[in-house]
Amino acid sequence: MARTKDENTEEQILEAAKNVFQTKGMDGARMQEIADNAGINKAMLHYYYRNKQLLFEAVFKSAFSLLAPQLNKILNDDSSIEDKIRNFTTNYISFIMKHPYLPNFIIQELNRNPDFIITIQKNNTLLNIEKFKAQVDLEVSQGNLKPTKGDQLFINILSLNIFPFVAKPLIKAFTKEDDKGFERLIEQRKTEVSEFIINSIKQH
Amino acid sequence: MARTKDENTEEQILEAAKNVFQTKGMDGARMQEIADNAGINKAMLHYYYRNKQLLFEAVFKSAFSLLAPQLNKILNDDSSIEDKIRNFTTNYISFIMKHPYLPNFIIQELNRNPDFIITIQKNNTLLNIEKFKAQVDLEVSQGNLKPTKGDQLFINILSLNIFPFVAKPLIKAFTKEDDKGFERLIEQRKTEVSEFIINSIKQH
DNA sequence: ATCTTTGTTAACCAAATGGTTAAACTATAC
DNA sequence: GTATAGTTTAACCATTTGGTTAACAAAGAT
């Protein structure tokens, strides 16, 4: 085997592909740019991943499997709904601040090819909302929460946490903030969002 | 002048371009497909719009100027914050149900080229949030609302209203709904979202 | 009638792009 | 050392794609 300096061309390719695909999308990405970015010959991309589609799928799956555990945190642990919302909000926002292209990439490509998520869902059941819904129903019946549907509550949680990252250019425009100011807004949301949600659903 | 049957080739092109660009994005769209879609020769696209970039910008601006008035509704009328939220939520959701590709298209392309919104903002000041913020401050000081920042509240309103459309494939997956079920969920949100927001911020 | 302007088309072109190939190189097995 | 199997590269290829051109058609203007 010929393994010169870096020991793992395959991972270098995946890393470069991740950068290019996540910023430019499937259609905007160029195989040559990925090769340059990885510092290797373009033919290597095909040697390791056959073609653009398969390389893209490798990147997409790796991105999705990085995000899914974060979502499952809120769905499947045993703390109260209230604690879950607090934990999820701070953790998720911190997580995305480290991977800023992730939400937009996934959403964009899921819209481009909606069948993709069907395959993923079939293989691993990456998102199971049943337990969360049951817990909401229980806490509603116990009088801890106002009448609330689990589906809609989860949509609200996702919306409030994810959307600001996806709509960053729009938000920067109307708040007239620069990148630093935007980050400050997001930082505030780590606590504000959970209070906003809890205020709304808590029975008092 | 040569005007045969339809009287307005230019608008046919724009309509076809809208369909193709909004579903496939700038990079995924093909000039030939737009031409076919409009039922005309590809050269006509260049005759009327010079090149792909300019045709795209025409579509983008027309899409944005369709959306902006909807946003300004909430920002600049004289009703109470509470009424504004209710009106905005029902109106906005109804509006997007008629233009389902709009939010995703705008967000996707704004992320691809963030400078775009700077140009738009400079030309027309499409989004002015100042009045809304002042009104929030006032109602907070009057004791109608809990301590709330206008910026963050507006981000929350946008998030809860727009995100579900943008993340449709994801939401369909974890709620296990088909298109019909998804529409039912959205329909519920016309009232649920505003109650959710108002519950959270109203002083009581 | 014919000249001019505007609109429309088919054919064409150069560049970009995903993908292939055949040869060369490297490390290990024998 | 030499065979062998995996790795890497430069050059190449076919197709796609945005864009151009030159000829043609239709409708006023004169």
UniProtKB/TrEMBL annotation, chains A, B:
Residues 30-49 bind DNA. Keywords: DNA-binding. Residues 7-67 form the HTH tetR-type domain. One of its GO terms (molecular function) is DNA binding. It comes from the Bacteria. PANTHER family: HTH-TYPE TRANSCRIPTIONAL REPRESSOR SCO4008 (PTHR30328:SF54), TRANSCRIPTIONAL REPRESSOR (PTHR30328). This is TetR family transcriptional regulator. The lineage of its organism: Bacteria, Pseudomonadati, Bacteroidota, Flavobacteriia, Flavobacteriales.
